[in-house]
Amino acid sequence: MDKQPKIVVIGSLNMDIVVEADAPPQAGETMFGRSVRFVPGGKGANQAYALAKLGADTTMIGAVGEDAFGEQMFGALSQVGVRMDGVKRLAGAATGVASILLADGDNRIIVIPGANASCSPEDVDAHRDAIAGADVVLLQLEIPLETVVHAVKTAKRMGKTVVLNPAPARALPEELLQDIDYLTPNQIELGIVGGNSGTDAEAAMSGLLERGVRNVVTTLGAKGCAYAGADGERGTEGGYRMDAVDTTGAGDAFNAGLAYAIASGRPLAEAARFAGKVAALSVTKFGAQGGMPDLQAVLAFDEGRFR
């Protein structure tokens, strides 16, 4: 990684309300939990935070409310060096919230968009200079789809590499798919975005390539990831055995690692391997942002120890 990547993240900023319990409640059941914590999160903010920790020159474009949660989001991202000029503060709007239940070593999440729903195409246009200077533009789907479509078109007109993490998953317009350089669904999202949840991963990725996506990288949880490129490249990267503390930000860590490696000029297989290491290390600490590793930790990661 011999150059500092410049990456613009366009997406969501949420406060994560994290409740830990021994098991998830059944319908109609009331139970005691172990703890509750308020942790800065949101897919966009998590990915921006992770990129800054890795050493990327990172700019965030999004929206928060003029409330205490919004102030905390600004503080958390600014502290690691994320450029926050592109994040607007909305009077009378609440910062987005994600309610996260941690139980049985896994997580269940409900997202309330709040100010994220006001992230608009005009906000993208107001920060065209940042996009023009970026190596990679990274997006997710926790902001309005029209804003995502506009941002992708804007980035492609400038000749930028676009990475889209299609989460939360939804059907995507063909015009959007044709402008995506790297699409990064998990297994469930792959079926939804690909339009056929019953199709195996290899066929679903091939279908997306036929619809215009240039590369598809599908995360497989603890099993690693699979990737496919329009140039015929195919492959998998295995997962790592880790003592997981909190898996909430693993997908965001993976996307940040992939974007970082791509912006550094690494080929797809190497980028996928690097992203897998970032994701593996991220689950060893609490909090979607608190677990994000720095570049030194990723480069020192001992593959053989955790296979």
Brief synopsis:
The protein is of the alpha/beta class and 307 residues long.
Write the layout of secondary structure elements.
Layout: E1 6-10, E2 14-20, E3 35-41, H1 43-54, E4 57-65, H2 68-79, E5 83-90, E6 96-103, E7 106-112, H3 121-125, H4 128-132, E8 136-139, H5 145-157, E9 161-164, H6 174-177, E10 182-183, H7 187-194, H8 201-210, E11 215-219, E12 225-229, E13 234-237, H9 250-263, H10 268-282, H11 295-299, H12 303-306
Parallel strand pairs: 1-4, 1-8, 2-6, 4-5, 8-9, 9-10
Antiparallel strand pairs: 2-3, 6-7, 11-12, 12-13
Task: Please give a structural write-up.
- The chain is α/β, with parallel strands linked by helices and 307 residues long.
- It has a domain at 43-61 and 119-302: Ribokinase (UDP-N-acetylmuramoyl-L-alanine:D-glutamate ligase, 3-Layer(aba) Sandwich).
- 35% of the residues lie in helices and 24% in strands.
- It is built from 12 helices and 13 strands.
- The strands form 3 sheets. It has a 6-stranded parallel beta sheet, with helices on both faces.
- It is globular and about 55 Å long.
- The two termini are 23 Å apart.
- The model has no long low-confidence stretch (mean pLDDT 92).
